[in-house]
Amino acid sequence: MSEIIRIVREARIDDAAALLSYLKQVGSETDGLTFDARGLPFTVQQEREYLDRRMCSANNITLLALEDDRIIGSLGVDTPAFERLSHRAELGVSVLRECWGQGVGSALLEGMLAWIDDCPTGLRKIDLTVRKDNSRAIALYRKFGFQEEGRVSRFFMVGDTFYEGITMGLLLD
C-alpha cells in the first residue's frame, strides 16, 4: 500500500476544475462557509483566468492542501485593490469534513505565513470573519495569533436562521 503524501502548494491554472469541484463538496459539508453546495458561480475557464491573475499578484494567493493529488483544503488571501486598504487582506479557509482535526488547517495557515515571510507582499494585517459557533475554527485562528476584534450580527444566513460572526485579525508587524 502506498503512503499518503500531503503537501501545501499554490494553486495553478490546471487546478481550476478540481478546485471548483472541491468547493462544491466542501460547501455541501458545512454551513460555516460563505458558500454552499453550489460552490462558486464560475466556469472552469473563469476559474483558470482567476487563478492566473492570482499567480501574477504579489498580495493574493490561493493555497491548496493535497493528499496525493486530491484537494482536501484550500486557503485564499485576498487584498482589496484600493491603495489605502492594500496593507490588509481577507482570509478564507476550508477543509473537507473527513480531514477535520488532522492538521490540514494548520498546514494551510503555516503555508500562508511562509508565503508572507518569503515574499514582499506589503501586508501588515490579515482579517477574517468566522461564525460565532464555529469553535474549532476559532481555536485554530487563535493558535496562529488571530485576536477577536468584534462581532457582526446577522453575518451568516442559512435558510431563515441568522448567525453572528466574529471578526478576527492578525497583525503582521
What's the structural blueprint in terms of helices and strands?
Blueprint: E1 6-10, H1 16-29, H2 44-55, E2 61-67, E3 70-78, E4 88-95, H3 104-118, E5 125-131, H4 135-143, E6 147-158, E7 161-171
Parallel strand pairs: 4-5
Antiparallel strand pairs: 1-2, 2-3, 3-4, 5-7, 6-7
Structure description:
- The protein has four helices and seven strands, in the order βααβββαβαββ.
- The chain is α+β, with helices and mostly antiparallel strands.
- The chain has a single domain (6-171), classed as Gcn5-related N-acetyltransferase (GNAT) (Aminopeptidase, 3-Layer(aba) Sandwich), CATH 3.40.630.
- It has a seven-stranded mixed β-sheet with strand order 1-2-3-4-5-7-6, sandwiched between helices.
- Strand 6 and strand 7 form a beta hairpin.
- It is globular, with a radius of gyration of 16 Å.
- It starts with 5 loop residues before the first strand and ends with a strand.
